[in-house]
Amino acid sequence: MRTQFARLALRSIGSASGRAARPTAAQAVRHSPRTQTLSTSALRPAEATTAHSSFKDPAVEEAQRQLELGTASLETGDVASAKAAYERSIEVKETASARFNLGVCLYHEQNVEGAIEAWKRTLELSPEAADAHTNLASAYVMSSPTRPDLAVDHLKQAAAITPGDAEIQFNLGAVLEACEQLEEATKAYERARDGGIERAQDNVRNCKAKILAVKMGLVGETPAEGQSGQAKE
Question: Which of 25, 96, 150, 221 is the most exposed place for a label (fewest CB within 10 A)?
Fold first, then answer.
């Protein structure tokens, strides 16, 4: 089976000007399914595709049918119908795609804890699902209390799976900057810029300006790199 996951991208943190904006980490998440803040990709469900086989398992076929129904409903904005279809798909035969998309529905319903559990289960079923990690990062930034340390941890895992993904690097830089881990944030933004996100250069300049301000004693010391708290779920 080939599974392609959607992503809930994080919004950029900070100001595009020379001033160092210091919003809370909770301001980082993009909650709307379509935005031009960071990601050029819309919120899409996982594709409902399966490998061809001469043997047709009725349970697999029904789970697939429900998955496709859920995807069609989600694409039209009918979250309730999509959620019900994904739940039926999981009842018949659990798949990473259905579990992932159920998490998307729960996130739309602002059930952040439920979405987190769904995406954790997705990773149990499909450990290389980088977008489950990025969605978990979004959820942990939205959770109460916010957990930027876990967001950073999941974005780093996503980056390890897909090192060439510039959006992940940009999002990683945004959360690191919110955590005042400016050196590491700068490197992430530089990777995003080198990967084709041109506006990341503005974030690189902003982080370097913040670092210089700290060195000149104009603002308080930033937390030591890597010392923002243990990522423990």
Answer: 221
